[in-house]
Amino acid sequence: xxxxxxxxxxxxxxxxxxxxxxxxxxxxxxxxxxxxxxxxxxxxxxxxxxxxxxxxxxxxxxxxxxxxxxxxxxxxxxxxxxxxxxxxxxxxxxxxxxxxxxxxxxxxxxxxxxxxxxxxxxxxxxxxxxxxxxxxxxxxxxxxxxxxxxxxxxxxxxxxxxxxxxxxxxxxxxxxxxxxxxxxxxxxxxxxxxxxxxxxxxxxxxxxxxxxxxxxxxxxxxxxxxxxxxxxxxxxxxxxxxxxxxxxxxxxxxxxxxxxxxxxxxxxxxx
Amino acid sequence: xxxxxxxxxxxxxxxxxxxxxxxxxxxxxxxxxxxxxxxxxxxxxxxxxxxxxxxxxxxxxxxxxxxxxxxxxxxxxxxxxxxxxxxxxxxxxxxxxxxxxxxxxxxxxxxxxxxxxxxxxxxxxxxxxxxxxxxxxxxxxxxxxxxxxxxxxxxxxxxxxxxxxxxxxxxxxxxxxxxxxxxxxxxxxxxxxxxxxxxxxxxxxxxxxxxxxxxxxxxxxxxxxxxxxxxxxxxxxxxxxxxxxxxxxxxxxxxxxxxxxxxxxxxxxxxxxxxxxxxxxxxxxxxxxxxxxxxxxxxxxxxxxxxxxx
Lengths: 271, 310
Description:
The complex is a heterodimer.
Chain A: H1 2-14, H2 22-35, H3 38-59, H4 73-103, H5 107-113, H6 118-146, H7 158-179, H8 184-200, H9 212-220, H10 222-235, H11 243-269
Chain B: E1 8-17, E2 20-30, E3 35-39, H1 46-53, E4 61-66, H2 75-79, E5 82-85, H3 97-106, H4 112-125, H5 141-152, E6 159-163, H6 171-186, E7 190-195, H7 198-204, E8 207-212, E9 215-220, H8 222-229, E10 233-238, H9 245-251, E11 257-260, E12 265-269, H10 272-281, E13 288-293, H11 296-304
Helix pairs in contact in B: 3-4, 8-11
């Protein structure tokens, strides 16, 4: 009797037709998977910023007596490091997980057989990526705050910046991972995009010290725009560029990336 | 059956991939409560047809209605009422057996509490309750298949699509899957399956179509198909010698059809014992004689040929 009643109840829910917020169910699925691995992740998301701050800020900073723009090297570098952490997490979470869901576990095909749309599958996964970005950025902010590396309470604004940067890079990366024909393409992305961006987009030294041609290359990266905003927040100063300009530029990457990713995933799932 | 409208109705259904036509204008009608089979060799167009019915592959031509709706326009609404067991398992190996079911149920908008109860019920149904909290990765192929079938049932679907549900399973696992599918059929669930196991089709299907090269080459119940496309009995003869050919020429008057294989000769006849007597009367003495009833496999091989398709 009990089981019979349950079956009918399940049927009643199932027959309601398409779900109202199906992307939320996809996000929940990713969180269930994350529940098994988060402990190891939490440790590294606190340890890593601590080590980076100590290594780059205190260690390298000791050689830079005059600081940068009138603040200590540690205080100057913290905002940029936060943005580059967000970049690393966003790209890591939208390369192999996406590739694997299409090629190895084929979970996307199972999701698309349910009443989800291509956009729901993407939105759920990207929401999880942004959750990871936000958690890592918050841990970073906490550690650097405790170490006294933040100059202004405006530093909390670095969190929404990190999330926007996360979307601006995760969406096009999603498109790239969905189209990749082998997983060795994913490693190439780190070698030829992530590492150069991290080195030359103003995280470790001002873009202005680059030759003019390379400078424009740095300005074109989404990372530089987030670095400028994030640094302004942690220092409590105005950014080099206009805030609106930065936000619009990052939003353009996010929207363009979303459209590309949607097309790429559609081509794989709807054949 | 008094149901006015078939649950699945295809007219002139076509699927093309570039210049290749995978499904070439087929007509299919699946009625509520029946078990309907697509038989055919690899590349016959079975899976392409199943994917169109599953609303994940838009038709290239013709008409397709599922539950009275248009699969292209109403995809999610139809998929909410389907259960799909794909050819290859698409489970999450990192999650537990139970988590796979509960997270999947959420895609259908089933509340978590209901989903957990439903999962327990289904794990019992496919005999996986004891493994509920173990990860999927170390499970055997048969267990994963049963979990995939359970997952296809989380939403209490009206139609269950099964693409080669028992391929690669050991006999025990196959029989368990058949029992469960038969139980579903008893409960009034409409089953649509593809297979190239003739015993599976004979066991499960009320009606089936044989596909070859994207077309339907025969349609009917297993019994009707055997009556129409084969004789009542088959005599298998094996003669001593390098080749069976010289013996075959002496036998061609005997059956409705004589088929020569490298190792034996098949006589398609209404009465097997009478045919064997005639063979002996001709002065021929095969080293091996087998008389058996015609099966779906004879129909299948007759219609789709014996050549290997890779």
